[in-house]
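[agent] plan:
  1. take the single chain provided in the ticket
  2. run structure prediction with default settings
  3. attach structure tokens to the ticket
  4. add a short note for the reviewer (M.T.)
[agent] executing step 1
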Amino acid sequence: MLGLVVHPGPVEEALRVAEAEVPAGRIGDVVLPSKTLTAAERVGIYHGMYPLRMTEALQSDYPALAHYLGDDGFRDLVRGYVQAFPSRSYTLNSLGDHLPEYVKTAPGVRRPEFCHDLARLERRRYPRRQSRPSPPKPGSTRCSRRWRPSASWPFAIR
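[agent] step 2 finished; step 3 output follows
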């Protein structure tokens, strides 16, 4: 099912590709229809949401790069990146492992060497998603000097 959800093409194409795993007539055995949606339409929702979720995950891993490239530029970068390095896991923890190298040669990226350096810096700052510091809770006495959200950074990358 993972292959069906992460397939880069339209959901109809993903269903055809996944037919060896789940025959088209049996998709309802794996994903139940709802009152208003067929099984294929329900898979289509996940299929359509997965690219958005990958963009969101990479944006949290590389916030400065996302800011520098802008929404459209970063979305285009992610689209090409996941084509070159598709997710092979049910989690997104290691999705961005190859992004610093990819950004050097990605089409349409302005100042690719700078973007490569910026992505490498962010990768070193947060080597794994699960090991990142979390923001302090309101009212917490925990020292928050080590964590600052990107909106409060003292500089802006243009």
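[agent] step 4 note for reviewer: Residues 85 and 98 are 7 Å apart (CA to CA).
[agent] ticket updated
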